[in-house]
Structure formats: structure tokens, C-alpha cells
Amino acid sequence: MHTIQADFDRIARLEDLRWNHNRHYHPFLLRQLPSRLVEALDVGCGQGDFARLLALRAERVLAIDLSPEMIQRAKEQSAQHPNIRYQVTDVMAWEWPTDQYDCIVSIATLHHLSLADVLIHMKDALKPGGTLLVLDLFHQDGVTLRDFIAVVASASLKFLKNGRLREPAALRAAWGAHAKHDHYLPLSEIREICASILPGACVQQHLLWRYSIVWKKP
Ligand SMILES: C[S@@+](CC[C@H](N)C(=O)[O-])C[C@H]1O[C@@H](n2cnc3c(N)ncnc32)[C@H](O)[C@@H]1O
What is the number of helices (H) and of strands (E) in the chain? Predict the structure, then answer.
């Protein structure tokens, strides 16, 4: 955890919020939610860009992250959103509440954790009728035609939205160093874990090397 925290403290100091593969799926995630929420939780909120979107439809948002630098940057950008509470927390050591949230979201974070353990916590912390949303990366063997299409789509969108194809060198180096500590599960294993913990969950593969989980608690 210390290494992951240090990686994201470093990334937080370098990264500005522009279009990226996670942000590309924010509209998809928002479409899974009702228009009004009372309590929402963002696990691994980073600089808080999705927490700020949640804050537009939730009365209260708790946004937690392991990295103090990420939380600092998130707070700096959230002055217009007094209904977001940011907290530096390791979710694996957190005392999760029960039946608390109308919505729990986690973006590009669960691959740092034990997926089964964290899904059980999330399931318990959701209110009946609440929605769980996960967007994350997965392990893939080999390259397919789909990857070729994804590379073209990704490069085109990056250039259109950000006006450049490559990130600055210091940020690329920070992500490169972090990638050595990343570990992704294959989609087949993710589907098995979801089937046993979240019956009826919709696990979907997306073009830009992401999968999503959408689950409503009965
Ligand atoms: C790739 S970033 C994604 C951030 C944000 N969700 C986004 O979409 O921009 C992953 C985040 O997960 C956080 N994280 C990793 N392990 C964590 C843990 N055990 N508890 C809380 N946050 C964690 C990291 O600090 C980092 O900010």
C-alpha cells in the first residue's frame, strides 16, 4: 500500500485533468444512476472529477483515497461542491458502514485491491435498491482486431480533446513506474467473482481496455 500511495502522490503532482480512458466512460456510468441520490461513495476518488459529477445529483458524497496528494488536489478543485467530503483512507482498512449508500462508485482502483473482498464490503455498504458501479482495467492475452480499433479511437479522441497525442515526459515516467506495480485479473475471473458475490450483475467489456460492473442491490 505504501508503494501505491507513493506512486499516486507522485502522479497527483503531475497530472492535470484532461480526457482519458476513464473519463471517457463517465457519461456511461452516470446513465446507470437515478437523477437524485441521497448518499454516494466514491472509492479511490483520485482528484475527485467523478465525485464532482456525483455531487450534482447527490445530497452528500464521501470521496476516499489512499493518496494524501490526490485528496489535496481534489479539495482544491471542489470549492463549488460543499456537499463532498474528502477523506484520506485505505479502503481495505476502513470500517465500512452497512446499508448506507444509494450509490457506490469506483473507477480504475479495484485492481489495486482484492476484488472479492472489496465487492463484499461494497455490497454490504449499499442500501437496498442502491447501485454499485465499477470501471476498471483487466488482463488480456494477445492482441485482437478490437485492440487495433481501440488504438485508432484512443489516439483520435486524445488528439481531438487534449490537442496532443502524448502526455508530458514526467507524467509518462510516473505512470510507467506505477505500471510495474499494477496487476490485472482476466475478465473470465472477474465474471466468476461477480457471479458469486453480486448475482445478476452486468459485467461489460468496453472498447478502451476497460470493463464495467453495474449491479443493483435487491
Ligand atoms: C488510477 S487512480 C483513479 C482515480 C480516479 N478514480 C479517477 O478515475 O481518476 C487509482 C486511485 O486509487 C487509489 N487507491 C489505490 N489503492 C487504494 C486503497 N487501498 N484505498 C483507497 N484508495 C486507493 C489511488 O490512490 C488512486 O488515486
Answer: 8, 7
